[in-house]
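Shipment paperwork, digital attachment
Item: protein structure file
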Amino acid sequence: MEQSMQERLDALTVERQRVALGGGQAKIDKQHDKGRLTARERVDAFVDQGTFRETGMFAQHRTTAFGMDKVDAPGDGVVTGVGAVFGRPVHIASQDFTVMGGSAGETQSEKVAAMMEASATTGTPFVFINDSGGARVQEGIDSLSGYGKVFYNNVLLSGLVPQISIIAGPCAGGAAYSPALTDFIIQVRGAQMFITGPGVIKSVTGEDVTAEQLGGVDAHMSKAGNIHFEAENDEQALLIAQKLLSFLPQNNTEEPPIVEADLDVEPDEVLRDLVPVDGKKGYDVREVIARIVDRADFLEVQEGFARNIVVGFARITGRTVGIVANQPQVMSGVLDINSSDKASSFIRFCNAFNIPLVTLVDVPGFMPGVAQEHGGIIRHGAKMLYAYSAASVPKLTVVLRKSYGGAHLAMCSKDLGADRVFAWPTAEIAVMGADGAVNVVFRREIEAAEDKPARREQLIQEYKDTFSSPYMAASRGLVDDIIDPAYTRLQIADALELLANKRVSRPSKKHGLGPS
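Attachment content:
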């Protein structure tokens, strides 16, 4: 007897409920016992209530070898679809660890790639929540090919739409390369990411290491610099992703959203005393950032890596800005290999997605030393020069205090295309610090003096008065204005408004060949 429509609808409801359970209630409970949400719970917590539209719910693998013909894998271990975050559409893939450990097979990867293609077609961000035991070895080369499709689409989306990866569980082997190809990685504490696990490392190199030591949050944030945000749990990771998206445009053809504008630009006298006049004294540049951005709201990126430079997103009178600032509290704010990599990557992202750059400068130079030279400080430092020079978004620079040598140029000087350069009265802009310059220029004069220390101090002061003040740079047109620190927010806000429609014409070419 043929089924009625109602009977068919009832059957559909039953099938949806079965698939929604993934690997079953026992495995869901096990996931909860680990303190982790399920794939569907993560999606529901991430998107605006009632907005998620799933695609590929009934997809299944087609493998029959190695007993796979008897394996039921609902959704093939991944939940895919589109939902809204703060009212704006986002395409999502969330691996389901309750289904074959979230292992990636041919069908799963095709579902993920389909979401990425939809992101490209619709100009919407792509978010991939990783929780997988790795490649589905039962599928052999088909599984490997699936990874290739995902990697290829990661590259196609690069610079087109924002891509965010959340590492919410294991992410091992080839799977780790997809997050590495995205713009931002958020890792949950307790989740691990690595190419080769502890067992393989032990057998090949003899090194003993735990999974957490090898690929946990601390390893990737403070040592490797592979991740951009760390989260205590799934819920916090999803909140970070939501906040991050709130600063970003949907794609490279749009401007960032202007929301929650704080139009207060009254003089802030506190700024006059935040930065010590003595260039050898440290301070936390994030206190300066908090005074010039809307509601002191600053989303710092890679907070635990290369802490001698600070990067992140904020708003100034409602407009999203990317902030790059030397951190005198750590290593005197010097530029080294890691800080150059961190900053240049962030600058390139901001330029790709039309986000103006605000650079706060207090830098003594590039880090000297054999390790830095042999580690490639020349090519790594050159990334800063390349990124700022290539950036065509509005570029505003504020010199707070020291700005010496090549590092002065690397921190978005006028010569690298800064649209506006402001300097505080405490700014010292020179080829090098006065102490070092005097030793080079006046070495013989100091040696010939009767009172060498007194003559040296006299010459240091003369050098500072001549070259190290902001007035010399201003006289050469390298500083647009010397400003009262209290008016910094007002000056930046005015410049952002003026430069909102900035257009730059560059030579036609496929792409530049920046330092590696």
